């Protein structure tokens, strides 16, 4: 089992949502953490909370939709910590709405933050990880990467791309000492859209909690798990159905209430 204790970790999306909860779970294991996000206030609050665990923390205020800011993040962490052992690509935009109702600028920004930023950050940290002979990239994708949801096509596309890119990188660097994991949460309670719109996911589709996602991140690192679904219901079975028979998958999404649920979310925007 890989020890997280003493490792230097970069966590994007560290100011809100599941980010601070993932950071806390890692800090409990003794990791030193660099938190990155746009909100300096949110980052500072999260960093202050982590200090009770006796670990080193730093914050980097960045807009990951800008390529220059991606470089800034890695440079800042290397200057302060001197090494990066683990990169957790958690930052993401929950872009939803009918596709043609979204501006092209919004679609582009979603692709940049959700997919290109993790790829770019990995491109920047990999030489360092390979040189030291060890490292781990953890990408927070979504069950949406496997099932596709209406009114969230852009989001689903970015998460699917992230999951499959991770799969390819895992094989490409097998034996190098650098490991890759994908976390696939279902609908997450308490934060994000649930907190914003006060909605409950379809009963048969289930949901998960931020704490379970955070524990999955730790498990992926410690036990070198390739892919972890984090959900309270058989979303995995739905993903299998979508893979085997797209028509059956679409029908199940209708029956399970996924389509109606997505429509309601858009109406509440």
Written overview of the protein:
- With 269 residues, the chain is α/β, with parallel strands linked by helices.
- It has a single domain (8-267), classed as Rossmann fold, CATH 3.40.50.720.
- It has 11 helices and 7 strands.
- The chain has helices at residues 19-28, 40-50, 67-81, 104-132, 144-147, 153-172, 193-197, 210-222, 235-244, 246-255, 258-267, and strands at residues 8-12, 32-37, 57-61, 86-89, 135-140, 178-185, 227-230.
- Strands 3-2-1-4-5-6-7 form a 7-stranded parallel sheet, with helices on both faces.
- Strand 2, helix 2 and strand 3 (57-61) form a beta-alpha-beta unit.
- Helix 1 runs parallel beside helix 2 (40-50).
Write the layout of secondary structure elements.
Elements: E1 8-12, H1 19-28, E2 32-37, H2 40-50, E3 57-61, H3 67-81, E4 86-89, H4 104-132, E5 135-140, H5 144-147, H6 153-172, E6 178-185, H7 193-197, H8 210-222, E7 227-230, H9 235-244, H10 246-255, H11 258-267
Parallel strand pairs: 1-2, 1-4, 2-3, 4-5, 5-6, 6-7
Helix pairs in contact: 1-2, 1-8, 3-4, 4-6, 9-10
Can you summarize the main beta sheet?
7 strands, parallel
Span between termini: 44 Å
**Percent helix range:** 40-55%
- Overall strand count: 7
Number of domain units: 1
Task: Give the strand order, joined by hyphens, for the main sheet.
Answer: 3-2-1-4-5-6-7
The CATH homologous superfamily name equals: NAD(P)-binding Rossmann-like Domain
Shape: globular
Q: What is CATH's topology name?
A: Rossmann fold
Average of per-residue pLDDT values: 90
Sheet/helix structural class: alpha/beta
Ranges with pLDDT <50 over ≥5 residues? none
Return the CATH class: Alpha Beta
Distinct helical segment count: 11
As a percent range, the share of strand residues is: 5-15%
- Radius of gyration (CA) equals 18 Å
CATH architecture: 3-Layer(aba) Sandwich
Q: What is the chain-wise order of helices and strands?
A: EHEHEHEHEHHEHHEHHH
């Amino acid at each position: 089992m890989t020890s997280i204790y003493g490792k230097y970790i970069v966590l994007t999306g560290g100011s809100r949502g599941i980010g601070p909860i993932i950071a806390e779970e890692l800090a409990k294991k003794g990791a030193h953490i660099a938190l990155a996000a746009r909100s300096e206030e949110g980052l500072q609050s999260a960093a202050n909370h982590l200090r009770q665990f006796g670990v080193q923390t730093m914050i980097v205020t960045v807009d990951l939709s800008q390529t220059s800011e991606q470089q800034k993040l890695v440079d800042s962490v290397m200057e302060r910590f001197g090494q990066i052992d683990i990169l957790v690509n958690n930052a993401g935009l929950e872009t939803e709405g009918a596709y043609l109702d979204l501006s092209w600028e919004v679609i582009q920004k979603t692709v940049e933050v959700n997919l290109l930023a993790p790829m770019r950050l990995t491109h920047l940290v990999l030489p360092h990880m390979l040189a030291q002979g060890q490292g781990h990239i953890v990408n927070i994708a979504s069950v949406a990467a496997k099932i596709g949801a209406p009114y969230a096509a852009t989001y689903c596309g970015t998460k699917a791309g992230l999951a499959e890119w991770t799969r390819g990188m895992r094989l490409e660097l097998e034996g190098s000492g650098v490991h890759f994991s994908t976390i696939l949460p279902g609908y997450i309670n308490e934060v994000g859209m649930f907190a914003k719109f006060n909605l409950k996911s379809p009963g048969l589709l289930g949901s998960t909690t931020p704490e379970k996602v955070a524990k999955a991140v730790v498990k992926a690192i410690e036990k070198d798990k390739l892919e972890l679904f984090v959900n309270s219901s058989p979303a995995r079975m739905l993903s299998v159905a979508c893979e085997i028979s797209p028509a059956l998958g679409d029908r199940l999404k209708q029956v399970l209430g996924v389509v109606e649920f997505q429509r309601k979310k858009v109406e509440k925007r």
